[in-house]
Amino acid sequence: MLSQVTSEQLYEEAIKHYVGGVNSPVRSFKNVEAKPIYFSSGQGPIIYSVEGRKFIDYVLAWGTFILGHSDPDVQKEIIEQLYKGIHFGACSPLEIEYARLIKEGFRTIEKIRVLNSGTEAVMVAIRLARAYTNRRKIVKFSGNYHGHVDYLLVKSGSGLATFSIPSSKGVPQEFIDQTIVVEYNDFDTVEKVFEEHGKDIAAVIVEPVAGNIGVIPPKNGFLQNLRQITKAYESILIFDEVITCFRNEYGGLSNQYDPDLVVLGKIVGGGMPIGVVGGKSYIMDLLAPEGQVYHGGTFCSNPLTLAAGIATLKKLKNQNYGYLEELAHLLQEGIVNIKNRYNLKLNVNRWGSMMSIFFTEHEVNNSQNAYNSDRRMFAEMFRFLVTKGVYLPPSPFEAIFLSFSHTSKEINYTIDKIEEFFMNVSK
Questions:
Q1: Which residue of 4, 213, 276, 420 shows the fewest CB atoms closer than 10 Å?
Q2: What confidence tens digit (pLDDT) does each residue in 53-84 have?
Q3: Omega prior to 393 cis, within 30 of 0
């Protein structure tokens, strides 16, 4: 039986109670000049709106549901733990199994701390880096998003990656005075920054694959060079793998580049709120109760979250990641063929099973290229595809994700509807 209420009616009621009617900005659909859809259920690659409309989901809770929605094995473990206890505010045996699975995937991690969000994990990682090095400056990359941490909500100013301004009201200038912003993939500027500030740089934090300005893979040598220069200056290298962890392999890019600290999230919570910071013991042991870097939290390592995470990680050990690569290649090639048929100014960036569609004829390898793409065209495509039951991220700067529950049937349908959109546009 279909709901008697519509998404539009719910949104009109929500704006009376919530700022902008939402609890996270991108859910407002402002980037695509539309009103939000309210979803009531999901199964595999499909989600259903409150009106009963069916959508192929390429958002997957921003990359979280790599197994698809409502995976029965994950659900089973959550339900079993629900009856045992929701939370104890104390140690749980699940913590041991969870840590072992994380370390099995991330071979360079020696110890971890489980938290409640990626933002929280980034805060702890930065605090550890500053405590270990006894330095203050942080280098981050334009377009890389590391949560709503005050000193990382920063955009570059007029100087050569040395002058920063807040990108959010409420963030005092003095909070970000120690933050240096460099364009992603621009190692030449990183070198100049280290030549000038190297002895004061506590850490470099990077999304090894940029996923919050659309998907932008690293240039050859970029991550390796970051590893080498941070070692040379005895700075901490932090990989933010909240998006990329367990996405294209059982583990992540950290296994190739050996960062000092790694931040994880999304997939490792199995659909529940989580953040993880892990790294070398000699850095992690600075955390209380062993050291003097404080972190604590009532809901850290919540048993329901750990149960969901363990079930997800166990299942991923037996998945064929090559299947995701095949699906992603099929979708990418389908879009590229449409581009060629209709002579479109369009580029598809892909890293494994995450990708972005940029409406520009130029290669997109940094944030400036991404921001110069045609956002209006993306919004038009988004609105058209929604009418056809295809749900892309409601922003051109968010990644398209695939899951193991998607099949070639959903991919081919999506390609057909994308072509239908361009057929209509070209008339």
A1: 4
A2: 999 999 999 999 999 999 999 999 999 999 99
A3: no
250 is an active site residue: no
Q: What is the DSSP string of 222-269?
A: HHHHHHHHHHHTTPEEEEEETTTTTTSSSS-THHHH--SEEEEEGGGG
Token pair of 325, please?
């690569």
Residues 133 and 236 sit within 8 Å (Cβ to Cβ):
yes
> What is the per-residue DSSP string for 367-408?
HHHHHTS-HHHHHHHHHHHHHTTEE--SSTTS-EE--TT--H
Asked about 73 being catalytic, the answer comes back as no
- Please work out, in degrees rounded to the nearest 5, the angle formed at the alpha carbon of residue 303 by the alpha carbons of 59 and 105: 60
Give, in order, the Cα–Cα distances in Å from 225 to each of 126, 150, 221, 230: 20, 27, 6, 8
Active site includes 155? no
Beta-bridge partner residues of 43: 46
Q: 3-class SS at 275?
A: strand
**Among candidate residues 355, 319, 366, 294, the one with its CA nearest the CA of residue 144:** 366
Digit-coded pLDDT (tens) for 139-164 = 999 989 998 887 787 764 333 333 45
